[in-house]
Amino acid sequence: MSAMAVRVITDSSACLPDTVADELDITVLDLHLMQNGEERTTSGLSSLELAAAYARQLERGGDQGVLALHISKELSSTWSAAVAASAVFVDGAVRVVDTGSLGMAVGAAAMAAARLARDGASLEECYDIAVDTLHRSETWVYLHRIDELRRSGRISTATAVMSTALANRPIMRVNNGRLEIAAKTRTQSKAFAKLVELAQNRADGEPVFVAISQNQARETAKSLETMLTDALPEGSSFMMMELDPTLAVHAGPGAIAVSCVFADERADG
C-alpha cells in the first residue's frame, strides 16, 4: 500500500494471518487476553488505545483516512470504543464499519478494502466494498463442545440449554452480530455434512471464498476443507488459519469457524 493511501485497521478477532496482513498493509490490533486465576478472560480495546492507533495510521496515510473494522458490537465493547475514538478526528477521517460479524468475514472485508486502498480508492469507496463484502458473507461455527461459550455469556441461557439438550455438536451461525443455532447435530460427521450443505445451498452455483479458522483441530479442519472443496463450485478459493486466542477462549478446543464470501447477497437480505 502506498504511503498516501487509506489505512485499514482491524482487530485480532478477524483471524487475519500475519502474512496476509503484511502483504496488504492492514494494521491488526490485538484484543486483550487475560489470566484470571485458572480462567482465561478477554476484553475489548479501549477508546484511548484505538484513538492512538487511528492517529498513527492517519499520519502514515497522509490524512487520506482510516477504515476501522472490528468485531460485532453484540460480542465486544470494542465497536462502541471505536465509535468514541473516531469522534476525536475531524471531517469523518475515521470510518468505523458496523460489521455485525467476527472472524474471517471481517478479515475478508478488510482485505477487500485494503486492495482497493492500494489502488488509490477513496475512504468512501473502501467503506462501500467492506460493507458489500460483509453483506455477502456468512459465518458458521462448529462447536466440539458448548461449555466455554455457555460460561462466557456470549449465548443466551436458553440457547445454551437447548443446544446442550438437543445437540452434542451444534452448528452456530453469526446473525445480526449474535450467535444462534443454525443446526442441531449429534455427531461431528453429521455436523460437517450439514455445514457443507448450508454453504452449498447458499453458493447457488457460484464460486465462493472460504476461510476456515480452527482451534486445536487442524486435521479435522482439513477434512472439512476437503468436503467443502468437493461440494462447492469450481473456482472457489480456500484459506486456513488459527482461530484467534480471544475467540478460542470462548469457542473451546476443537472449534472450527467457516467464513464464506458469496457472489451475491442473500435473497432475504
TrEMBL record:
Question: Keyword set for this entry?
Answer: Lipid-binding
> What is the name attached to this protein's record?
DegV domain-containing protein
One term of GO molecular function: lipid binding
Gene3D superfamilies of this UniProt entry?
Answer: 3.30.1180.10, 3.40.50.10170
The record's section on Pfam families has: DegV
Q: Which organism is it from?
A: Corynebacterium efficiens (strain DSM 44549 / YS-314 / AJ 12310 / JCM 11189 / NBRC 100395)
